[in-house]
């Protein structure tokens, strides 16, 4: 990031409303890809509470990207996730649950910077595997993750029943 921007830890007293706006932005973008998802404004408060709770249980953190003292994006990463299913690799892993950059700040390297900070954070925690989930239709996000060294691992298919 440039001299006017920085990545730092989420501070609920200072960042909550701005991060909530980012959650709404991400959800509305994803609703454009998958219309069955709930509206951002309807789920943002509950989702942010859920996200912070998961962070506390999985040694996770939320990092914010600021430009001119305004939050323009964030990443949420869980540093220690235990595999839950007996048929999967039993190695604990880290997981990026959310990464969003507001539209007018995209394509400036902010998403990449958030990803690099998240990776460094989980690397310091001892994690050796970092996973991320992305909607199949979200090609820009998948491109960012692949460019950062992620590879396809698992594909979930959905069939809507009537």
Could you provide a short overview of the structure?
The protein has 162 residues and is an alpha+beta fold.
For the structure shown, list the relevant keywords.
40% helix; 5 strands; Aminopeptidase; 162 residues
What is the CATH T-level topology?
Aminopeptidase
Strand order of the largest sheet: 1-2-3-4-5
Q: What is the percent of helical residues?
A: 25-40%
Class computed from helices, strands and strand pairing:
alpha+beta
CATH homologous superfamily (4th level) name = Gcn5-related N-acetyltransferase (GNAT)
Order of helices and strands: EHHEEEHEH
Shape: globular
Looking at the overall shape, the CATH architecture is 3-Layer(aba) Sandwich
For the sheet with most strands, the description reads: 5 strands, mixed
Q: Class in CATH? A: Alpha Beta
Low confidence ranges: none
* Tally of DSSP helical segments: 4
Distance between the termini: 47 Å
Number of domains: 1
Our Rg estimate from Cα atoms comes to 16 Å
Mean pLDDT: 92
Give the beta-strand count.
Answer: 5
Strand content: 15-25%
